[in-house]
Each structure stands twice: as C-alpha cells, then as structure tokens.
Amino acid sequence: MAKILAVLYPDPVGGYPPQYARDAIPTITGYPGGQTAPTPQAVDFTPGQLLGCVSGELGLRRFLEERGHTFVVTSDKEGAGCVLDRELPDSDVVISQPFWPAYLTPDRITSAPRLRLAITAGIGSDHVDLPSAISHGMTVAEVTYSNSISVSEHAVMQILTLVHDYLPAHEWVTAKQGWNIADSVSRSYDLEGMDVGVLGAGRIGQAVLRRLRPFDVTLHYCDVHRLPKDVEEELALTYHPDARSLASSIDVLSIHTPLHPQTQNLFDDELIGVMKRGSYIVNTARALIVSRDAVVRALDSGRLAGYAGDVWYPQPPPSDHPWRTMPHEAMTPHVAGTTLSAQARYAAGTREILENWLDGRPVRPEYLIVDGGGLAGTGARSYTVAG
Ligand code: NAD
Q: Which tens digit of pLDDT belongs to each residue from 327-345?
C-alpha cells in the first residue's frame, strides 16, 4: 500500500465549502490539437467545487482510502518541523499545486527514500528539483493542458488591464469614491495596432496568440520550436529566433515558457533595457524568468509602463516583497490556473495519473516531465536540465 502526501493551499478564510456563484461549469472533453481531457475511471466530486484547498482534497480521499492507501493532506510546507518535512520520509507519492508549491529540493528528495512519484496538480513542475528527481529514479508528471486555456484567458485579461490602466480607474470610483476622468485616463491606451509577442508558443502561448488575433494587433513569437508554416500564416505571426529580437520588436510581452536553466533570470536589466520605453510585461509563467528587482527598476524609470504577474518567488511571498508595492502593477496571487473550471480538470487528471500508476499502467506520455531516468514526454520537449 502506498502513502500519498498532498500539499494543498489553505481553506478559504470564510470556511469550507464557500457559497458558489454558479451551479455548474461547462463540460470540456478535449483541447485544441485533439488531446482529450482527463479520463479517470470515476471522480468523487462535483465539477465546479473548490478542490485545490485542504478540505477539497482534490476529491481523492474516498478513492485512495477504499483501496487501502494512506492519504495525508496538509498546507503546512515551510519552516522547521513542518508537516511536509515530517510526513515526507515514508511517502511514496507527493501531490502539489504550483499555486502553493511543495518545493521538493535536493535535500527533501534525499530525505524520502520511498518517493517514486511527484504529481503536479496543474502545469509547471519547476518546484521539483528535476536533476534530483532524475537521479532518485522518480517519475514527475503534470496534468498537461488542464489549465492552459484558463491561463491564456488570464493573460489576455492582464494585457488589457495594463494597457487600458483599468485598476487605477476602478480605484477612483470605489476606494477613492471620486470621478476623476483625467486622472483615470492619463495612462490609458488601446491595444489595437500594437505589436504583441509571446515568449513560448506552446499550449498557453498559442492560445494567447489565437485570442489576441481579433484585437487587430501585430503578433510576434519566440520559441525553441518553430510553429508550422500554416499556423504562422493563419495568425500572421512574426517569428523571432531569440528573446532579444522579440523583446526589441514589441510593445507588449506575454511570457509562457517553463522555468528551466535556459529561461531563469532571462529578463534582467539588460534584456528589459532593449524593450521600447513604455512596454508592458505580463508574466503568468514563473516569477524567476524575470529579475525581481530589474522589473521594479524598469517600472520606476518608465522603461516598463506596466507589469502584471500571476507568479511570485517564493510562494507565498513575504509581506515586504517589492512587487506588492511597485508602481503600475496589476499583480494577482498565483490563481490563473486554479479557477474552479480548471480545478475540475486537474483533479480528474491527478486521479487518472494515480489510477494508472498505482495499477502499474503507463501514464500518458503528454503528462510526463521526468521518467525512466531523464526528461520524458512534455518534459523532453519543453524543459532542459543543467548539464
Ligand atoms: P508547453 O510545454 O505547452 O509550452 C512551453 C513552450 O515553451 C514550448 O513550446 C517550448 O518549446 C517553449 N520554450 C521552452 N524553453 C524556451 C526558451 N528558452 N525559449 C523559447 N521558448 C521556450 O507549456 P504550457 O502548458 O504552455 O505552460 C507553460 C508554462 O506556464 C508552464 O511551464 C508553467 O510554468 C506556466 N503555467 C502557469 C500557470 C498559472 O496558473 N499561472 C498555469 C499553468 C502553467
């Protein structure tokens, strides 16, 4: 029998379950390109429920306990003696979400001789030290595509929020109880006609490009894998072979690569410095792809007109993290990929991975990041590990 340890974000402060705004969510059975949505044998939750917090338990308890497995759920993941560190040494499986990541550092992996599987309930497995996972003989899997469309919608929302300067205008009529039109519009522009680019044109990046096409913008992208010619033509895309060429050509950048050695700290003072004065960056990918302090400096100097991020480091960030107070920001806590709609898909995908792994069946290749002693599946296409 296996011990499964799930590290999930805390329950809502108002108690669990919350009062839901809607009674149902649309049923999504497949994704662009033909991949099917998760196909577990069954689920023990109602789609649309809050599943990613401790009481939600990703809807897994009955399934695991009926099969005789031990299931431990906690949000306590940092500091000496935390539940994660206490429970890890005899765990076989760790489940974690990027929104509240269980950082599986080399030391933690070494402390867990039985650990064989790390599941990311969501997308993005950089919270697992992948070289250590490889040398430990682990499988790392994530629920590819489960929240890609959710994130693409969030990125488009943040682009419009920044360019139109929506949040300060909202504040004038709510918190400030005013009607200050001139103040509200003094940094407000239309997106129409701008050059917009994505770094990383994978599942999320392509969905962002497709959603932006009707806004009559000029679209650009940079990816280590060039898109097929017909896609480039359909979306009238300009391809850039490197991030510098992209950065210097656009007004708005949306970042959609994984965090790995090639992308860590990529947008530093130097690369942000080649962007046009008054550019915008939206980063729903991973915080460490940009230099924290370079972003603050660029907002202060006006090189950047705005920065909207959904991702921070560490998570949760300290109360004095400079992104909480920098000017011209439209930050969210890491929520883009954990809408109630997305949770239903990644909870079902987590169960599908567990059903297969516990029964000795292969996990879908597109869900794999690390397997068989190296990067595998989506991991082999989208990640690198330091050599
Ligand atoms: P994906 O694997 O489909 O696409 C990633 C793309 O990045 C690939 O096309 C890959 O070739 C490209 N890439 C990798 N390294 C590159 C480099 N150095 N330069 C240019 N391109 C590079 O992944 P996805 O589903 O689109 O997700 C992308 C990332 O978004 C995830 O890894 C995760 O970090 C993040 N994410 C965030 C949230 C959220 O809630 N904010 C949710 C899901 C995913």
A: 999 999 999 999 999 999 9
SS3 label, residue 219: strand
pLDDT in tens, 271-328: 999 999 999 999 999 999 999 999 999 999 999 999 999 999 999 999 999 999 999 9
With a 6 A CB cut-off, is 266 part of the ligand 1 pocket? no
Question: Which of ligand 1's atoms lies nearest the C-alpha of 145?
Answer: 25
CATH number for region 148-324: 3.40.50.720
* 61 to 4, 8, 45, 49, 360: CA distances (angstroms): 10, 13, 10, 15, 20
- The CA 202 to ligand 1 mean position distance, Å, reads 6
For domain 3-146+338-377, the CATH class is alpha beta
The pLDDT score that the predictor gives to residue 387 is 59
How far apart CA 335 and CA 350 sit, in angstroms, is 18
In terms of phi and psi (left: phi > 0; alpha: psi -120 to 50; beta: otherwise), the region of 12 is beta
- Strand partners of residue 120: 96, 142
Of 83, 135, 80, the residue nearest 109 (C-alpha):
135
Report the C-alpha gap between 189 and 328 in whole angstroms: 14
Cα 184 to ligand 1 centroid, rounded to whole Å: 34
- The reply to whether 321 belongs to the active site is no
Closest CA relative to residue 111, chosen from 72, 85, 146: 85
Phi then psi for residue 282, to 5 deg, are: -115, 125
Q: What residue spans in the chain does CATH classification 3.40.50.720 cover?
A: 3-146+338-377, 148-324
Spatial strand order of the sheet with 218-222 comes to 237-239, 218-222, 195-199, 252-255, 279-283, 304-309
